[in-house]
Amino acid sequence: MPYVDRQNRICGFLDIEEHENSGKFLRRYFILDTQANCLLWYMDNPQNLAMGAGAVGALQLTYISKVSIATPKQKPKTPFCFVINALSQRYFLQANDQKDMKDWVEALNQASKITVPKGGGLPMTTEVLKSLAAPPALEKKPQVAYKTEIIGGVVVHTPISQNGGDGQEGSEPGSHAILRRSQSYIPTSGCRASTGPPLIKSGYCVKQGNVRKSWKRRFFALDDFTICYFKCEQEFEISLVNMLKPRLY
What we know:
This protein is an alpha+beta fold. It has helices at 98-111, 126-133, 233-242, and strands at 3-4, 10-17, 25-33, 38-42, 57-60, 64-69, 81-86, 89-94, 145-151, 154-160, 201-208, 215-222, 227-230. It has three domains: 3-111, PH-domain like (Roll), CATH 2.30.29; 144-181, no CATH class; 187-249, Pleckstrin-homology domain (PH domain)/Phosphotyrosine-binding domain (PTB) (PH-domain like, Roll). Helix content is 13%, strand content 32%. The protein is elongated. Residues 164-189 have low confidence and may be disordered.
């Protein structure tokens, strides 16, 4: 049966399957630390271990999508077994008895619960309200004259230079000033290039699926040009290193 220690952490012994589908369960001491946002497990109670002995496993609570009792089909010969679904991996754990199993499932689900405010959103913070009320002063740009053309049924405004030209100096032959593809910033990763603008904000948010209206926790990244999201922070970092496009789930 799990108990709460002096640091308000839920602790207790469980058996964990070291490798999925191996059928081999090992006895470990688990600590559910909501302040540190992680589930840790040790070889034994840390008080009985040598000084400096660290955890043998860890799982961030933000990665947990669901904790449920294992079905007989999943673990037919393992009583009091429950499963933690985290990212693309499953962790099977065995409790001491029925009550122990239910207590752990409830505690883990509560710790990793995604709460969505009613009414569609949270009130704006003071910083956001200030930014909306007093937007930063923009750099004053010189006035530019334009000429209007209809190209392919679309109204296009073309800058006119002071010498009366079309303002297309340095452009590719035959290209239109407005229709040219901008070369100032072209993201090569799904979110931002390594030489692109710095991140304005990044962190975990919850989003609702388009087809399945369930809420899932995703890692978002915002810069001056794009906002994108990843399954986890590690996936975001990998995409920057490997210059890969993010996979949206």
